[in-house]
């Protein structure tokens, strides 16, 4: 039986989501009001959850969206019947445009810090998740979208999209834990070049350097993710989980140790005049694209 809940831009605030979710209602059919920007479907027969991002126009990660992602990831992790998670997008052509740049441009300082802390928490949960995680990348996946993808255990992507840590193109620097996640995925030389140049790799290039694991036609991305999931779920769960934890723990612990320092660094860095100027120009260039 498929159970389903929609999470989303909370018309009545995050409190409602917490209320619904805290009562373990996430997987019940009857708790679906007020939500619109995340779909979480759990197939109770296979134990596979599909989390689909649905925040038009580009699934940009703002504070509210990250909060919802955190709640959903926590629920998946705590659901004993759930063994695997597929993350994808409901939007055409976009997996996620990464962090919402408007959170970083002319920010309110308290919100900015909260935003960064919520991103850190989301990453710690996703990168350290015991469940098998597969990114079904059915659209562009720059910066924070790339971070989410490389935090999963396996990546399947449709052709003719782009993925990468392009922060330098915005005049900003990817934090150490973005870099660590990249280094744990592709080799040092590729990371060194990609991070400096802010490279957005086309799907084919991403495949050739190991940034993604498989390329399939757009309409087959989700099916391929389910098929791949079966391969992972055949492995005894405890052994697989421990192997993952052993490999990822040092990277996660590094951020946990430096969390507050990282928030302070981010706040001081992002509010510099020169960085604000770069972000403003980048936002403007996105808007002018259409003209
Ligand atoms: N944040 C906020 N708004 C965005 C973002 C974003 N990341 N991306 C796009 N938008 C907005 C556009 O401005 C546009 O707004 P409007 O409709 O009001 O003009 C709307 O979304 C639609 O965008 P497009 O018209 O560009 O849509 P397309 O389908 O043509 O293109 C893309 C989609 C390819 C995703 C394109 O929008 C794009 O390249 N976006 C920018 C992606 C990007 O560079 N993201 C980087 C974010 S930074 C990050 O994730 C990590 C930061 C780490 C900080 C560390 C500091 C220490």
Account of the 3D structure:
α2 (63-78) links the parallel β3 and β4. This protein is globular. The protein is built from eleven helices and eleven strands. It has a seven-stranded mixed β-sheet with strand order 1-2-3-4-6-8-11, sandwiched between helices. α1 runs parallel beside α2 (63-78), α2 packs parallel to α4 (109-127) and α4 runs antiparallel to α10 (237-270). With 291 residues, it is of the alpha/beta class. The chain binds octanoyl-coenzyme A (CO8). The site of octanoyl-coenzyme A has 29 residues, from β5, α3, β7, α10 and α11.
Topology pattern, helix = H, strand = E: EHEEHEEHHEEHEEHHEHEHHH
- Cα distance, first to last residue? 48 Å
What spatial order of strands do you see in the largest sheet? 1-2-3-4-6-8-11
Q: How much helicity do the residues have?
A: 40-55%
Gyration radius, to the nearest Å? 18 Å
How many helices? The count is: 11
Spans where pLDDT lies below 50 across 5 or more residues = 8-35
Main sheet makeup: 7 strands, mixed
Mean pLDDT rating: 90
Name the shape in a single word. globular
Portion of residues in beta strands equals 15-25%
Oligomer: single chain
Helix-strand category: alpha/beta
Number of strands: 11
